[in-house]
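Recap from last week: sequence in, structure out.
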Amino acid sequence: MRYSQDFIDKVIDANNLVDLISQYTQLKSSGSNLMGLCPFPDHNEKSPSFSVSASKQLYHCFGCKKSGNIISWLQQYNGMSFVESIEFLAEKAGVPLPEPELNSAQKQKYQQNKDVKKQLLRVNELARNRFQTNLEQAPQDVKSYVQSRKLTEEIIDKFQIGYAKDAWDDLINYLQRNGGSEKQAGELGLSKRRKTGNGSFDIFRNRLMFPILSPSNEVLGFGGRVLKKEDNPKYLNSPESLVFHKGRTLYGLHETAKHILTEDQVIVVEGYMDLLALYSAGIKNCVANLGTAFTDDHAKLLKRYTKNVVVLFDGDDAGQTAAERSMPILYGQALYPKILSLPEKLDPDEYIDKHGIESFRDLLAKPQDLYFWYLSRVLRDFDRTPTGQIKAVDRLFPALSKIADNRLRELYLKETAERLGVEFNWLRDTLRQMWKDARQKTSANSAATSQNFSEKTNSLESKDSTSDSAYLDLKSLMPSELELLKICLLNEELLKNFLVGNDFAYLSTKTAKEIFAELHSYYGQDASSFDKLPGLVVKKLRDPSVITQILNGDLYEDEGRVQKLYTDCVEKLKVEATKNELKELRMGLKDGLPEDKLQRYMELVNSHKAEKRTNS
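Predicted structure tokens:
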């Protein structure tokens, strides 16, 4: 859903950046700002360099250079999308989300659906709480099992791991005592109605419980692992529900997103224990796909954080087949996938337990290109005879046809032709014909539907790109304009001087004119809003990190120095504006200038000559 700028501003104003960041690092007063150790995982420091401005509602680390406002924080640290950040903050501050434009019947259904989702999420939270309490009070054999799996207190806490008692009605009784219902528990797959007699029984019994969380820490569902080898199934997941969709959810992302962003790489494993084994060993840029088929939605979700994917499925035949099936999906989203195949058909958890983390790190440092891995598997099955080559091309076609990056596909085609022993042009022409034939097999109705969908998609993309173009890029500013902006955002008197004087006309770039016009409008309406102006600018920026120097107010505390800097900036702008005007007038001389513009041209030329004589 798209939100208006007014609503976004309302949500941001209703939250406090200091309160949010204080949950992750201790902040202490330092001049007009607060300072603390940088909380980002890729920046380990001993001396505080992370600055937060309570008045401006901005943060900046002078070490790793990360900076922004409260939205940027949720995106950079928690890995939330822009919309998820807005909705998280709205929920946190109790600001109701705007309802879509619907008729009365649709609006009623929408509200009911929204209320039901909220209630189901609350029931899942209750279940999570019960499982956590059960683990704290668990019998010794359960705790021994947890220790044998090397699940530390830190891991248990971060991933909110719990325990479902070996009882038929522990959870359902707890839920009913705390406001949940049998119907809700049934919809979430937590319980099931008895075939005979009254009431329901618990689905998860005598299992280690892994809550599946959204990036904003909502409990969407659960995975349960048996404690005894003889129990089946080994893993049991929540079914699809109004709040849980396996094909759109990746386990661990609520905790690992910041590490994926930092490493610019994600490792995709199959199971909860695989992820926890990697995380415990210090490899934290990973997710698990809940043991289900890898989907387009999974790939789109990963693309938010990085394009670099390492597929690390189990080493058995099923795991390798799953890796093969994930290939067209990953390439279809223009990701750059690699694969790590573990020897002895072990899964990551088993490999680390048997060979140690250092051996695993050695393997992880050398993942194989996913397409080249698949090409080798295909070429093992076919000989170099003409029929063998054609059969190999038929096998490779589904993967090659899905590669969205044309440059990458071209490189793969060259390697494929060489290893297959055919001419590159022949292979390319053959695949083109196969693509053409595949398209022609599509029925007229499907084609019409596809065209209609394409038009809608293009329309949506057009809207998105228009929205994106509304953001400003400070890299387009002249150096003097950027310096002037910094000064004006930290010195109220000089901002007033600039906005009320004639110097505004000397701004050269469109971006500078837009920013200062916005400042003039906002500050003109509310003279007490000066401290909010940096935040106003940040909301308009494509890249909030460019406010690095704006937070460092110490640069401008010397009044004499800042006045000189301001004067120098304005003078440079005047000189540049004069040069541009002179250049435009000189170009107009060829076609003849009106008398007033010719007179202006002579004034500028004489002024320029006089200035050169003065400086010589």
